[in-house]
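Example record for the data management plan.
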Amino acid sequence: MTGSDLLELLAEVERGTLTPEAAAARLATLPFEDLGHARVDHHRSLRIGLPEVVFAAGKTAEQTVAIFSSLAADGVDVLATRVEPATAQAILAAHPAAIHNAVARTVALRQSAGASETKGHVAVICAGTSDLPIAEEAAVTAETFGARVTRLYDVGVAGLHRLLAVRDDLKSANAIVVCAGMEGALPSVVGGLVAVPVIAVPTSVGYGASFGGATALLGMLNSCSPNVTVVNIDNGFGAAYTAVLIARGAAHTRQ
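Corresponding structural encoding:
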């Protein structure tokens, strides 16, 4: 339930079009719903503006579908990440309107009243095609929660002209997510070109001395661009979630 949903619910009670008992029934699962294997946080949208997200890794298909369905019943936009193909098919069987992105390993259901509106602009950049799964996870996350997303892929520093060629595409973004493996240099370069927050995502892409993304992580943490901040290795979701909040704030400020 979002803040606007709650206000409309109270307004219906005030107008007499909804009984207090019916309103109480709708609020029965707040602040969370105990499914036995999970306690679904229905109150999260009221607290921070975005609903809970289902991290499917380590969960059975049945558990993931149950959590996804619980959130969907609340009328919010629902996102599941790190979804295996069999689990994705189980979600789609229960929610045919949901969309599975096999590259991003996500399943998203857009159903909120404002699902067709965009709030802020997030650019998602990746250094190479090998970084696409993480970049797409970020892009789908930002789109699911209402941001306009510009995808700029395969623009790594090994061919700097590729990045400079899309520089104009970055100017309107409120926040930029940059995914890169290997030595992790791309966020520093992007940070030096733009006047907005850059959220760096080290990916586990590279040869042996990349240490599963640790080299990129350390490089990004030592960035000389002061507008660069860093999330954990392969955490495209976390980067985009934060970028959406930044973009929403920027869009609200301009209104």
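Summary line stored alongside the record: The chain has a mean pLDDT of 88.
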